[in-house]
């Protein structure tokens, strides 16, 4: 499909720079069949059915934004995928000053050696020492806010909490599964009381999620791989919910993409562990999920293509036009939507 079909104009003032407070006070655009309704995230217990299951991503964002020096050259690095115990793939700023074998000093006693450069321009970085890399990053790294926020204000202490979900448990993401940022313990308790369950899986979100689609046609776009895991007990739980007539509703596109990666053509979700580079565009048949809670996405992005595959392109174009006109807040710290085909 032509990528231009997924373009739209977004006024810059619609981009949220801070999350709603409290988190579940964020607005929620409900698309249910042909119905369009304005609500808030706190209304979810009354918008879903007893027996439904919300599936959250329990990945934890690491301080993956690094600033260092190679000799007299400033080098910026954004880690985006682990390749080994001490090796990470990273997008590099000032990459023209970096070569295979160069040593980068990130301060606080943290150094790394540049390895091979991939086709996408990213470098492998091998971190020196015996301490776990996560501990090194806590010393020298900072929270990797999305570029559409970082370009408007600096990262600060609030982001360390604001950019983690209440489910964050497994370190490894360099971007938050932002739909889950809206959830609070009080909202989960209300959902439990309404008979709406929840489960978790793990997908370590990479910085590739923010990369624009540069191809003119979706068939020419290559997705970055991300590592994920659904264990056997969780897969069995999801299948049992659907067999009993409940709906599996992914909270975030990361949860959805991992479930769909694990689902077979027989619509059975199986245990999964490894990389996924699934790319969902209109025409895709969903096999493992029945709905999605997600924020509002970038124009021409793979994520807007995904929601258009779920609900239909014209439906999502109209929904986004409504959200823009009605003052919804967009992107990672913005408002949410409940999409039920």
UniProtKB/TrEMBL annotation:
Annotated compartments: Cytoplasm
Pfam families: Queuosine_synth
KW Phosphoprotein (keyword) present: no
Catalytic reaction equation(s): 7-aminomethyl-7-carbaguanosine(34) in tRNA + S-adenosyl-L-methionine = epoxyqueuosine(34) in tRNA + adenine + L-methionine + 2 H(+)
Subunit structure: Monomer.
Family: Belongs to the QueA family.
Name under which the protein is recorded: S-adenosylmethionine:tRNA ribosyltransferase-isomerase
Gene transcribed to yield this protein: queA
